Amino acid sequence: MNPTQFAAIAVSAIFVQNLVIVYMLCEGSFFKALKTPASMTLFGGCITVATTLSSVFAWLINSFLLRPNSLAWLSPIVFIIIIAALEALAELIVSKFLPEKSNSLHKLFTASAFNCAVLGLVFLNIEVNMRGFFGAAFYGFCAGLGYLLAMFIIKNALERISFSSPPTVFKGLPIALITTGIISLGFMGFAGISIS
Amino acid sequence: MSKNKKKAASNKKAAPAARKKEKNAKMTAAPAMKETNKAAAVPAKGKAAQVAAAPTNEQKAAKTAVEPAEEKAVKAAAATEDVKVQEASAPANPNSAQTEKENTERAGFKLAGNKFFASIKNFNFKRHKAPKPEKAEKAEKQETGAPAELNKAKKAENAPAEELEKENQLLNLKKRLLDLNPVFIKIVAAVPLLGAAVSLKNGILLSCVMILTVVLLNLLLIPIYRFIPNRYRPAVSFLAAGVVITPLYAIAHYFSPSIASNCSIYLPLIAVSALALCEKQHFGKKYVVPKTALDAFFNGLGFAFAAIIISVLREIIANGTLYDRPLPYISEAKFKLAAYPAGAFILLAVFAALFRKIFNYNEGKGDDML
Questions:
Q1: Does A22 touch chain B if contact means CB atoms closer than 8 Å?
Q2: How distant, in Å, are the alpha carbons of A130, B278, B283 from that of B274?
Q3: Membrane spanning segments where (chain A) (predicted)?
């Protein structure tokens, strides 16, 4: 793969195929994580690690086990096992090297690993099987960065909205959803861009 | 007149003598008082002491007047000692019972006062927080001396009523469909609905898969959930969701491959959404299998209700069709934005606001984290 292809993957993963704004993979944990910049960065970093590692292992298993044996129907359970195993591994490492922080990081790991964004990204990565191993890994990494970017954009927009006074019925999640919808309108503009 | 003058003169002469007598009487009384009350003791000195050493008749009379006071004081002291002894030795005595009562009342007042002052001391005027349950128990033990088991027993008396209320809340189809709709009110499990509910066919498939997933997940998890440590519960439930969704995913691809491929990545993501729905149920704590499964079924119906409304509206607005059949008049006026993510977000937000307004959902109950 040449650098232009990597750039195209980066642009498409961060902007054109943004997990939150375009693919709408934002569960309750996404809005719960919108607190402080530090916590958002930590959560986004965990998501990035999870997406990168899970896309690497998913690509390997899909390419060498599922697709050759026409076991694609088993993909949900296989990918779920991969994600659960990665989460368990991360907890094991933390409990061994940082035992005092294992309890506080446990919730963060579970929220970031058992997230629809991670599972959805793995399926997205497998659907477009043209990228190769490094392409899949880089796509996973950039998709995590796109998730982090979406978090910061939506948080900033919601902070600005908090200064205004929306109708009482729309206060809370409805106004957050409308804000996300308006932001996704802006991101639709990236769909026309093609690099390569 | 002369007689009167003489009388006055004799009175003047007699007055100092009477005063002297009174003084002497007082001086003789002083040592006796010294024994009973040291503060009132007056030392006898000089001439008065000498006079006291040789008492006259008048002094004797004064002595006899003072002696009863001494005796009274001594008797009173003895009486108080006797009462104390009686209290210690014979509590069954009615007089001692009264004193006991008085003492307990005093102790009670003291305790109440101490509690009151302690609460004032410990009160945080900035932000009053209720103590944690363990701390509260300890505090109760320290303050009252009574075990916290009594309070637990009182709570246990009220518990059945609360459980009944919860069960009634659980097994209520109307609440799951409208009042507490998981998608429109709680905004849970909205991902597949936002992504794939573009047509009625997709909506029906999504709702069928969701209902089956939620019910099967409940049936699978409830019997084992209480035996799993808290730390491993998310991982185990995630794996269970995977186990449930895999055959459903295969069946959907086998019987309706076109609709399943239209749903693309959102069909397996129902596993995560179903898990979110189940978490809202708090399964595996107090409830038995059939009840929670029925409640899960109602929850799934709530999701299906929302999915069908959203998918029908999006199909009509975006394509002007219903179940792939063109509608008259409407098919000419298409608004493609409804099929895009922006349209999905805005439509869901409008429905959420509408349902919250109609069913008076109180904001800030936990899911409103903004």
A1: yes
A2: 31, 6, 13
A3: 6-26, 38-61, 73-94, 106-126, 132-154, 175-195
Q: Higher-confidence residue: B207 or A28? A: B207
| Chain A (65-124) residues lying within 8 Å, Cβ to Cβ, of chain B | 73-77, 79-81, 83-84, 87-88, 106, 110, 114-116, 119-120, 123-124
For the stretch B188-227, pLDDT in tens is 888 998 899 999 999 999 999 999 999 999 888 888 887 8
* Paired tokens of A84: 């659960």
Query: What pTM value is reported for the model?
Result: 0.68
Joined together, the tokens standing for residue B311 give 């998918």
**C-alpha–C-alpha distance, residues B191 and B270, integer Å:** 8
Q: Which residues contact B116 (CB under 8 A, 6 or more apart)?
A: none
Task: Return the H-helix or E-strand segment holding B325.
Answer: strand B325-326
CB atoms within 10 A of CB B174: 9
Q: Which two tokens stand for residue B29?
A: 């009384």
Q: In whole angstroms, give the CA distance from residue B323 to residue B103.
A: 85
- Spell B243-260 as b/e; 16+ CB within 10 A means b: bbbbebbbebbeeeeebb
> What residue has token string 């002497």?
B24
Residue bearing the bigger pLDDT, B314 or B109? B314
Q: How many residues does chain A have?
A: 196
Distances (CA, A) of B293 to B6, B52, B216, B315: 125, 107, 8, 32
A48-106 pLDDT tens trace: 999 999 999 999 999 999 988 889 889 999 999 999 999 999 989 998 888 888 888 88
